[in-house]
Each structure stands twice: as C-alpha cells, then as structure tokens.
TrEMBL record:
TM regions (residue ranges): none
Record-given protein name: Transducin beta like 2
UniProt superkingdom: Eukaryota
GO biological process, one term: cellular response to glucose starvation
One Gene Ontology MF term: protein kinase binding
Composition-biased stretches (Basic residues): 21-33
WD repeat positions: 50-82, 148-182, 240-272
Signal peptide positions (record): none
Coiled coil: 380-407
Keyword entries, A-Z: Coiled coil, Repeat, WD repeat
An annotated GO cellular component: endoplasmic reticulum
Length: 409
C-alpha cells in the first residue's frame, strides 16, 4: 500500500426520505436562519441533482460495490443515496443524524458495510457499521468509542485501505497518521517541515499527499504488513517529479496503474505508476496537458483512466487522457466553491458538491473515449472473438451516448 504527499455524536439511522430532481472548510454549525438559497444550475448533461441536504455538502464517496453514494454536510447529517435512482425522478436516500456535531469527511469501508466520518468539532474519527433491514432500510451503529484526538492542525483528508487493514488521517501541518481499525496509531509519518495540502489512500492501498507551495513533488509511501497481517513499517516508495509549481491535488485509476496530478503551473499530468519501485524504477510521465485553474482546485481520474475532470472554484472541465483534449466545460455548477469531485466506479457519472445540492453528470467523454479506443483496436484485431468483443463494446458505448442525447433533445 502506498502513500503520497503534496505541498503548498453518534449517528442514528432514520427512515428513507425522497427528494427530487470559494471552498471554505466549515468548522461551525450553520444556523437555520442563515441557510442560503439553493443555487440554480442546468445543463444538457446533468443527469440528476440530489437535494436532500439542508447545508453545504463537503465530501462524497462511492461504495466499492457501486450501489451507494455517501455524502456529508454541515447540516449534521450523513446521507446514503442509491445510485440506481440517479436517472429516476425521485432520488432515495437514507439519513443518519450527527448529534451535537457534523461531519466534514466521509469514507465507505471496502466491504460497503461501514463508513467513517471526521467530526468537525470533536476533531476525530468515528466508525459506523451499517446493517440492512428486511424493508431495505439501514440501521447505523457507532463504535463504542471514537478514535483518540491526535492531530494538532486542521484535517485535510481521511482514507481507508482497500484491504481494510488501515485508516489514514492527514492534517495541514506535517503529520499523517496510520491507524488500525480499532483506533490505535500504527505509524506517524512526518513530512519533514513541508506542510501537507492533500492526502489520499490509493485503490491498491497507498496513501498520497501533496505539500504546500514550497515543493512541486508528490511523495508515495508504502504501508507494509507481514504475511500474518501484522503491521511492519511505512517506507518511502517513489516520487512524482515534473511540475514547476505546487501540486493542488491528484487522483488514481481503479487499478492504481494510472495517476493524474494538477498544479499551480497550469498543467495536469498523467502518470504510469505501475512500476517496480523496489528496483528503483520511477513512474513514467505519459502526458502533460494545459489547464486554467484557480484555488480551490480538485482533479478526478475516471476509474478506467480514459478521462479526467478538474474543478476550479465553481466550474468543472473534462479532458480525455488519450490526447489531452477538452471535452466538456460546466460553468458555475455550484453556488459555493466545489468541495469534492468524484467518478462512480463504473465511469458512468461524474459527481460534484459545493453547496446544498449534489450534481450528477453523464460521463459522455468516457463513452466517446471507449468508441475511439475500441475502433483503433478493431483495426488491428485479427482474432474473430476479439473483433466481436470490440464490436459489442463499441455498440454499448454508442447506445449509451444515443440514449443520453435522445433524452436531452
């Protein structure tokens, strides 16, 4: 499992509810009188607007089985949405109430049966188990105790390894902590006087973090466990070098073989990270693209690595990774700065948050990339079974595009 750096009270399950149709970390509860008006946004590629929250949504995460999207907001709730309802008129969600606090970050467990949140006021991790009832609703049971408070600076991200062996928390100073699932600290990674600005656990179990403006490098660490599952150590794996200014954010493909970074130097980079770093092999730079970005800025790579999206303030731009071409541009998507940007695990949707609504976009750029890629492979294919498979993939992607545009027209 690897880690990277870049510079610069209890929840109770409720019944199912139905709804239709500049980034600032919130450390206080928004008063009801202070509630802003809902931002109005429309676009032909907007698949859904999830509007259950009454406060600003700060974080999103898809379950590994692709069935659910979890969101948290400063309205003291965590909501779990059914992805199969994204194209329906009504969007089902199950609400969990966070009493006397609110969550700023949320992450599903690898088995999709639990989630963790970062509590804004208590400044710690709380773990919840999800139990599905016969009627389809969930009940939420919090662990007997929250994690101990260890960080001294504001938290910037949390993550869970896909293996389920550790949890990562990173703060805006030089501290990254590796925990076991019971709240014991396994390791403290100190980034040596370089403050963290972002951190994440890769799908293969790595954690990545950029550091503040003073460096343009992204450092990767491996969290090592023995054959018996016991924790051993955290070691440096490799670095991504090439940007000429601080890195804002990064993202991974589903198999961790590709990675994208976006920087203050006005470029994004696509990397091949499928390397034997223990033999001193460095990641390969595959492509450098230009972009216009302002802080706050996030980047998301689709799980199949065919497209990427970059959010800058309140707008989103989508690029293909094959030629680096701009595919879509969504302006003023949210009334506040975009706080999170993610693709679903099947690369069908791009989802963002930043105000009270969660915007779900069709990933038409991804379908177009499939058609282009498969057509290129079809010209070289000689095996009949391979040609049939490629024809079917092209047909499925084209049918998806035709369906999306037919509904919008």
């Amino acid at each position: 499992f690897f880690l990277l750096f870049f510079l610069d009270q209890k929840v109770n399950g409720e019944t199912i509810s139905k709804t239709s149709g500049p980034r600032k970390q919130k450390h206080h509860q928004r008063s009801r009188k202070d509630k802003p008006q809902q931002h109005d946004f429309s676009h032909p590629l907007l698949a859904a607007a999830l509007k259950g929250h009454s406060g600003s949504v700060t974080c999103l995460d898809f379950s590994s089985n692709g069935k659910y999207l979890v969101s948290c907001a400063d309205d003291r709730t965590v909501r779990i949405w059914s992805t199969k309802d994204f194209l329906e008129r009504e969007h089902r969600c199950i609400r969990a109430n966070v009493e006397l606090d609110h969550a700023t970050l949320v992450r599903f467990s690898p088995d999709s049966r639990a989630f963790i949140i970062w509590l804004a006021n208590e400044e710690t991790i709380r773990v919840f188990k999800m139990t599905k009832k016969e009627d389809g609703n969930f009940t939420f049971t919090a662990a007997p105790e929250d994690f101990p408070k260890k960080h001294k600076a504001p938290i910037i991200n949390i993550g869970i390894a896909e293996t389920g062996k550790f949890i990562m928390t990173a703060s805006s100073d030089t501290t990254i902590l590796i925990w076991d699932l019971k709240g014991e600290v396994l390791a403290n990674i100190n980034t040596n006087q370089m403050n963290n600005a972002f951190a994440a656990v890769s799908p293969c179990g790595s954690t990545y973090t950029p550091t503040k403006c003073t460096t343009s490098d992204v450092k990767v660490w491996e969290v090592c466990f023995g054959k018996g599952g016991d924790f051993r150590e955290v070691t440096r794996a490799f670095e991504l070098k090439g940007h000429t200014a601080g890195v804002y954010s990064f993202s991974f493909s589903n198999d961790s073989r590709r990675m994208v970074t976006v920087s203050k130097d006005g470029t994004w980079k696509l990397w091949d990270t499928d390397v034997e770093y223990k033999k001193q092999q460095d990641p390969y730079l595959l492509f450098t693209g230009k972009c216009e970005v302002k802080e706050p800025c996030r980047i998301a790579l689709s799980p199949d690595a065919r497209v990427l999206a970059i959010s800058s303030c309140t707008s989103i731009t989508v690029y293909n990774t094959r030629m680096g071409e701009k595919e879509e541009h969504f302006v003023n998507v949210h009334g506040e700065y975009i706080t999170d940007l993610v693709f679903d695990i099947n690369s069908r949707y791009l989802v963002s948050c930043g105000d009270r609504a969660i915007r779900v976009f069709h990933n038409t750029a991804g379908y177009r990339a499939i058609v282009e890629e498969m057509n290129g492979m079809l010209k070289k294919a000689t095996n009949e079974a391979t040609r049939e498979r490629l024809h079917q993939q092209i047909k499925d992607a084209q049918n998806a595009l035709d369906s999306i545009y037919a509904k919008k027209n």
